[in-house]
Every structure is written in C-alpha cells, then in structure tokens.
Request: fold
Amino acid sequence: MKEGHINLYSDTQSRPTAEMRQAMIDAPIGDEQKFLDPSVNALCEYVADLLGMETAVFLPSGTMCNEIAVMVHCQPGDEIYADHTAHILNFETGGVAALSGANIFTLDGENGVFTAEQLANATRHPQDRYAPRSRMISVEQTANLGGGKVWPLEAIRSVRDAAKERHLKCHMDGARLMNAVVASGIPAKEFTQGFDSAWVDLSKGLGCPFGGVLAGSQEFINEAWRCKQRIGGAMRQAGMMAAAGLYAFEHNINKLAQDHANAKLLAKIVNTHPLIEIDPDDVETNLVFIDISKTAVSPHQVMNELEKVGINIGAFGKNLRAVTYLNIDSAQIEEAGEQILNVINRLS
Ligand SMILES: Cc1ncc(COP(=O)(O)O)c(C=O)c1O
Reply:
C-alpha cells in the first residue's frame, strides 16, 4: 500500500498528536515486567476500573489480548463460539488453533451480532465425549466486519446469560468498545458486566501508536501474565507507550463522536450515487461499508484507483471499507467521498 494524504484504510492508521507525544516523553517509567513502571501500572488500574474488572495487563496489541485470553480460558480440543466475521477467526493467522489448540464454531449473526438462541443451538452436550468441549464465547464490540455495529446491551446480556448457564467463559474483543460507549452512551462496564475477560485497544480510534489492555479477575490476569511472558509480550520501560493510553483516555474519548459524524457524512455523500447501497442511518460508529456490487466495478479496482489520487480505503467482499479516526477531518471526508464517486463513474 502506498500511503496517500487521506488514509481511510483503518483506524489503526491513527497517529499520536504532538500533545500525546509530549505525554509519552514526560512519562515516569520503570521495568514493566517487574511491576515497576508507574505509567503502565496507572494505565492497568484505569482500564480495570473502566471495565469493572479486578485487574488488567498491558499488551503490545489487541491480537495478543485475544490470543492470551484464549490461551488462559481454553485447553486443546475446546470449542469457542464467535460470529463468522470475527477478527479472532479471520485475521489472527489461525492463532487460536496454533497457540491454544482450540476450535472456533462460527455463528451466523446479523452484522456480527449473534443471539442466545444461536449459541444455545450450537453448544455441545457436556456428556458427549465425541464432541469438542464447549468452553468460551467471544463477543466483538463493535463488530468490525459487521459494519461497526454496536451490540445492544440486551443482546450482550442475553448471550452472556446463555453462556453462563452452560458454564462457558465470556470474552469481549473490545478493539472498538469505546466507540460503542460513545455511540450508545452506555458505560463500558455495563457492556462487560459478568464477562471473564475484556480488553480495549489503544492503537485505533484512541490514537495511540501501540497496545491493548486486557482485564479480568486477579486469577485470570496471573495466568495471562504467564502467557505474556511465554510468547515474548513482557516488556521493560513500556511506560512511554502506557502514557499515550492514559493521555488518550483523558483527551480522546469525546473525539470519537466526531469520527462517528464523519463516518455518517461519508455515507451520505456516497449514498447520492444511484447504484451505491448504503443507508447512512446504519452507520453507527466509525466504520463505513459501501456496497458497490450494483456498479460495474469491483472494490479492488476502486481501491487501486483511489490510491493513485492519494486516498487509501479497504476492499472487503462486495464492499469498500472506510474508517474514520481523530486525524481525519470533515473536509478530508468530503474530498474522499467526491473521489469515490468520481472513480466509480469514470470506471463504469
Ligand atoms: C475487532 C478487532 N479485534 C482485534 C483486532 C486486533 O487489534 P491489533 O491490531 O491491536 O492487534 C482488530 C484490529 O483491527 C479488530 O478490528
């Protein structure tokens, strides 16, 4: 990918601002893996409290948060229930199988949101020694390939209760949990209540260069630390990175509302094309999936042409995917929207 002047490929493209960089420079630091880094300790305390969990651990990436949670919750041969679009299934290079020997049973949710009934129908009889052992669910809030949909609180609670009835561990992939919080006005700990593990990503909408924070009970986090150490995720003076996270929680959460407004604006602009299928009201957070299957061009063609005019965008199946974040303003969204329409008209 050649990076252009408007990069809507993903919110992972967000850059730390000058103020965040200054906070990183000023951060008190120490040896993280000996619990001697004050900034990491403060970040973990902050996120544990935010998610209503006992404690937390700082990790280099969201992927590592997911994979370590599975390593702690599952034994080889165990089964995990997740939506068929889930990141943990599609974008972690088979980590669940490779690192934990677990199996993912996919559920066909709507926009990434599955139901308690679907879960109940999928789980195995505990006495069935031919079947894998049902062990865990993973809920992605917001659902990435589900179009940035916010799992409604009632949907999360009913899936959680169905999982608990079956003695399953509940895990939340909260890569964009703070987007859900801002879009819904519901505190993060309401979404994570009763979950055994949950995490938030720092390097997406929050604008940090690095990291995720995984939270759970003290017992869960003790085991997570063993896994972190084992796979080389234990760090040293990581406080400079943690300070970016602390800065983001203080200054960048409210800015997510602007990202959501920008996403809606882009949907409105491209919706003026008669062959583009998108309902701006369906755009709840910062992910915009633009269905161009009725046009004569493919998402990859459009993506490649846009790159030539300095605009980066993703292509997933029949959709273009654009993602907004704090370094993108509404003028850039207007330019990107116009260019998407131009390219589609020109190629058609
Ligand atoms: C839903 C979801 N989960 C997990 C991840 C992985 O996060 P990271 O890039 O920090 O490893 C992503 C990244 O895009 C994601 O969208």
About this structure: Residues 330-347 form the longest helix (18 residues). The chain has a mean pLDDT of 97. Residues 17-251 form a domain with the Aspartate Aminotransferase; domain 2 fold (CATH 3.40.640.10). Residues 264 and 280 are 6 Å apart (CA to CA).
